[in-house]
Amino acid sequence: MSTTSDTFRGALEAVDRIVNRETEADEVLRKTVEVLHDRFEHYSWVGIYLVEGDDLVLGPWQGPQATDHLRIPIGHGICGTAAASGETEIVDDVNADERYLACFVSTRSEIVVPIVYEGRVVGEIDIDSDAPATFGSEDKAFLERVALLISPHCLVGWATGGEPWPETS
Ligand code: SME
Q: Which residues in 95-124 are b (16+ Cβ under 10 Å) and which e?
């Protein structure tokens, strides 16, 4: 299974359908993770972190193993760096990046795409790959569009039992 522009287009359409059909925010995020994990061979582990105060809290994820990083302070690791800057991070070789918080021994490269809503980072998509230097500009453009589509669904708390997330200044 190789990744073509049809793969990206089809997956974006699938996420668009999920966003338009699902009424529960948690379901939107769960199904989006499923689409990303199922349709892209090089997306080995896919998770969505949600901002809660000064931390990122792990929401839905799919992959061969659970991560120990359930809560990451903003500013820490590759995830925390992307959340602090609001800019996508692509790391071609995680073992050469001292910011990297190791999760899985099999991981070689990583992409972290912030989810921004009304100018505020509300979460991020984190994808680990077992292949080195596998994330390119097409992945970045695609995942940034996915992040935009799901951004309104990251406002209700995954960890706060469905209450609206408090405003952070
Ligand atoms: N590697 C990430 C931590 C999250 S795990 O990949 C799921 C980081 O350096 O921030």
A: eeeeebeebbeebbbbbbbbbbbeeebbbb
